[in-house]
């Protein structure tokens, strides 16, 4: 988990931007904005979520699957965790 702590500020900044995007979608819906504008906002929020996911997956691979100091059991566990999350994310 120390690798998450090192990236905590950047990750939280991404989450705050995503929160702002989702709040913008809510405002657009409440204000009955044009559907094309709402779709663009949804697409942007989805892209931001995907970017956050990609960063955390990358860090997980680096630290829990590919790190040279890991033993085989630790690598296998890290890979299993990653596969489970990706299956859930793809649903």
Automatic annotation (TrEMBL):
Annotated organism of origin: Dyella lipolytica
Family matches, as InterPro entries: Metal_Tscrpt_repr, Metal_Tscrpt_repr_sf
Source lineage: Bacteria, Pseudomonadati, Pseudomonadota, Gammaproteobacteria, Lysobacterales
Entry-linked Pfam families: Trns_repr_metal (PF02583)
Gene3D superfamilies for the chain: Metal-sensitive repressor, helix protomer
Protein name stated in the entry: Metal/formaldehyde-sensitive transcriptional repressor
Membership in a protein family: Belongs to the FrmR/RcnR family.
């Amino acid at each position: 988990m120390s690798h998450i702590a090192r990236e905590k500020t950047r990750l939280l900044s991404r989450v705050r931007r995503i929160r702002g995007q989702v709040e913008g979608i809510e405002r657009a819906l409440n204000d009955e904005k044009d559907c094309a504008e709402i779709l663009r906002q949804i697409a942007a929020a989805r892209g931001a979520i995907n970017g956050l996911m990609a960063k955390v997956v990358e860090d997980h691979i680096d630290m829990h699957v590919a790190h040279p100091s890991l033993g085989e059991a630790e690598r296998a566990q890290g890979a299993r965790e990653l596969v489970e999350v990706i299956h859930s994310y793809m649903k």
